[in-house]
């Protein structure tokens, strides 16, 4: 069986690649002021939106009414409600003035907005309240750990607790002077790169938490332990570290069951479980995870053989997905993953449109029965937004060059599930050995939807204009490699918009340009037996979130069509390979608009307890 893992480039080649890439990324992202990963535009940080341009706002993805958002923070289920906190700029549409905004929901889909839970006010967070996590302590007491920036721009680990535990919404949070910060970076720690504490877990009679950091290019997950959740002591060794990977933002560490899809509490640590360790790599702005074993005697995490650390490894999402955080939902016994998708349209447009950033649909995550990767699937509650009468198609043959329009749905705001099959893999194109050392994205860029193939490219043309001047293909392409096959999965934004300002001739700076990548990953599936593959795409005006083969590979793209907007957006099935492809079944639903961050007092939804 072949798949993404077999295609991973050698570490040495990858490093070369990444070094070059990092120079580019550093130029694009840059940093100034406090050492965090976000581009700082001081002059724009406190320019409030005078209007909100709706064109590309999402219909059912999480976003506040206006301004900038980034990382999801401290998600938790508590006394009947889901809480989502997130990094938010109340004063403008670029990163800055960061507070912990706060929303609540009964179903992870309809959200009511509360006042910010944590704002800069104390010496230990006066220059910012950055990312962190929630832990439910014994006695059913929620506890937030976050990174505060002090006046010297040192990154400290602080905590906040609900002011009134009997308030069902936990509206007010206090940051006690006593005990804050609960971790002060010791002199051996790089205090300007020390942030994003994880949900704590209890093992060996002690609480444990991890904080992301770096020393030069060494990425580090510092481990701290505490007997009483008050006094925290740094462990002799980090839980995990990897040379050459730079700053580890937003680490996440949790157990997964080796059987079935039920999630586990973060403290459910015994020999029967595997562990997942994820970092958001500031250098690449992508997230990588490994599956491994947590040795609780040595207090070390050890990735399994073949589970590769860093950018040679696997990602939750091969597209626009960053600073994610998971939590155990003990209502439904599942682990849920939230990730942030930044805009790709350039900062001037963000300021003009009065908003920037969305949270992707929360996903259930569990271990693939192959034990080598996770599976991800949108939470089942999303299905409550599906129209009662979906459009369906079955047994439709797609010959080479054929497009079939999926008519009768609102193609700009839809949920589409489709399964494809074909007779044979004989026509699969050979896999060029030079691609083995390239990211899948480069292969997708070279072999776009209009480049004819053997088995594929086939899939969906999402957010397409009537005459296909604009389109975001989400597609598969099968290659033959030795005696096996590899499956490339792409979400290609190259032709997603007619906006032309990404061209070299433009005199715009890079961060004002439209970013239109050919995002791609490989799918670890053996098609020789089944000759079938499935796809689900969540299409929502400026985002396409796609799940290949039951969530084995996921890609999210942000796109900004100019023609394929609202009712003028279309959806097509297509095949551009010589092998005929059959659409065994397609079901496409219009998606309703949920209640989205209406202030609690005004909303009529389901958070009434
Ligand atoms: N965003 C936060 C940091 C985190 C980064 C600041 C990741 O805590 O490292 O807004 O996007």
Automatic annotation (TrEMBL):
One Pfam family matching this protein: Glyco_hydro_32N
Residue ranges annotated for the Glycosyl hydrolase family 32 C-terminal domain, each copy included: 381-590
Molecular functions (GO terms): beta-fructofuranosidase activity
Signal peptide: none
UniProt keyword Nucleus present: no
SMART domains: Glyco_32 (SM00640)
Glycosyl hydrolase family 32 N-terminal domain mapped to chain residues: 61-378
Keyword Hydrolase set for record: yes
Keywords for the protein's UniProt record, in alphabetical order: Glycosidase, Hydrolase, Vacuole
Reactions that this protein is recorded to catalyse: Hydrolysis of terminal non-reducing beta-D-fructofuranoside residues in beta-D-fructofuranosides
GO cellular component, one term: vacuole
Recorded family membership: Belongs to the glycosyl hydrolase 32 family.
The protein, known as: Beta-fructofuranosidase
Organism of origin: Linum tenue
